[in-house]
Amino acid sequence: MGSNHAVTDRVARLRDIVARMRQGGMALLDYDDGQTRLLLRLAPEPGAQNAVSAPLPPPAQPASAAVPSPDLGVFHATHPPASGKGMAVGDKVSAGQIMAFVEVGPIVLPVVAPAGGQIGTINAVEGQSVGYHEVLFEIAPA
């Protein structure tokens, strides 16, 4: 009897997901959490009119690239034993360049630029506690 209840629950959840997809105008859902994979591809609803729409414009280039903290820890503008000045707003960076560091106990992790450009915003100060994937810098396209 318990497995029948589990199947009923799953069917109810799937119906809810499909209803939300239709409500949001989604035609495809691909979910994977490492243990479960769910791929839903919805057909048009019966009786739905085939709408002809103008071609969509190309997607806009992102205004900036976020540079996240690699882990939670303490922000350092330069490597902890080194002294000197860290990055400043307006500095140019290259993709893959080390911009700062996050100290996690005895480990010091680099904060790496995901894209090249110019630093537009710095969101952390020396010695500040930062969270996992907290945005530390914003890089504007050069």
UniProtKB/TrEMBL annotation:
Residues 67-139 form the Lipoyl-binding domain. It comes from the Bacteria. Residues 48-78 are annotated as: Disordered. InterPro entries: Biotin_lipoyl, Single_hybrid_motif. This is Acetyl-CoA carboxylase biotin carboxyl carrier protein subunit. It comes from Acetobacter garciniae.
